[in-house]
Write a structure and sequence with these properties.
38% of the residues lie in helices and 4% in strands. With 95 residues, the chain is mainly alpha-helical. Strands 1-2 form a two-stranded parallel ribbon. Helix 1 crosses helix 2. The longest helix has 27 residues. The chain is globular and about 40 Å long.
């Protein structure tokens, strides 16, 4: 987490915002580490970085409420539809 915060303060702060996702990849990583720990949060962060490519649409991509590497797929029990508005920090989804 220190490395991510260092990146945000030193590298990201001196460049204009260019992330096509909300929250940014570094904020997503911090949230996933806080919610799921180093291993699970690291896997979610890695998958997010792999989704961040020139031909992706971007948009709102919150950390999933329930851990699953497949939460993007409709067949997954942890499936979450993409949002139009971001979750407020600490807010839980109502089902």
């Amino acid at each position: 987490m220190r490395a991510i915060r260092w990146y945000q303060r030193t590298i990201s702060a001196h460049n204009p915002p260019c992330c096509k996702y909300y929250p940014s990849c570094s904020n997503y990583a911090l949230q996933s580490f806080e919610r799921y720990g180093l291993l699970r949060g690291g896997l979610l962060s890695l998958l997010r970085l792999l989704r961040c490519r020139p031909w992706s649409l971007g948009g709102i991509d919150d950390v999933p409420q329930r851990f699953s590497l497949f939460y993007r797929f409709s067949w997954s029990k942890a499936h979450e539809e993409p949002r139009l508005t971001p979750l407020v920090s600490g807010e839980k989804e109502t089902a």
